[in-house]
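Colleagues,

Please find the record for the two-part complex below.
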Amino acid sequence: GENVEQHPSTLSVQEGDSAVIKCTYSDSASNYFPWYKQELGKGPQLIIDIRSNVGEKKDQRIAVTLNKTAKHFSLHITETQPEDSAVYFCAASISNFGNEKLTFGTGTRLTIIP
Amino acid sequence: DAGVTQSPTHLIKTRGQHVTLRCSPISGHKSVSWYQQVLGQGPQFIFQYYEKEERGRGNFPDRFSARQFPNYSSELNVNALLLGDSALYLCASSSRGDEQFFGPGTRLTVL
């Protein structure tokens, strides 16, 4: 089955600087790659996603890149703010309408230092 | 619009007991998935239901079962609870399957 590895496990960034979180996946059939933000005591919140027919996607301060050849995708957060502090999870799935199992990475705890 | 709702918020059970967790998806969403999140780890897939049919099952024992009702709400049942079942149980709903939106979860503690 699919295996998703995520690095780093913890990341501290000065406010205003950029943060990058990287994930690799094992199943070349995976074609959907979402990123979730989880704050303490809450469920994961979908913040951005990318499909395998796209190499890069951007939404304001957040961007995701995908390298299908290397089976690698990354989350980029620019101009970080204190409210960006949370645990971030990457995930991968095979988009097969009505049968999509998300396989998650182990998470990155991002701390923004004021 | 209301998001995914789950009940109860917290639950404490003892070993060997049975538990039922409930989920209401976002209005218009026909797919519901269940995940288990152990402290410090990413969510692990348990079940996916679409139009009341089981479409996927993760690597969990038969003590775990689920169903989806005609109004697309869902229940997760766990029998013969073990200490290791203590976790945050998350429900996610989707309209097209892959974009999954999570609820706040039910925190289950097994003593």
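The two ends of chain B are 37 Å apart (CA to CA).

Comments are welcome before we finalize the supplementary table.
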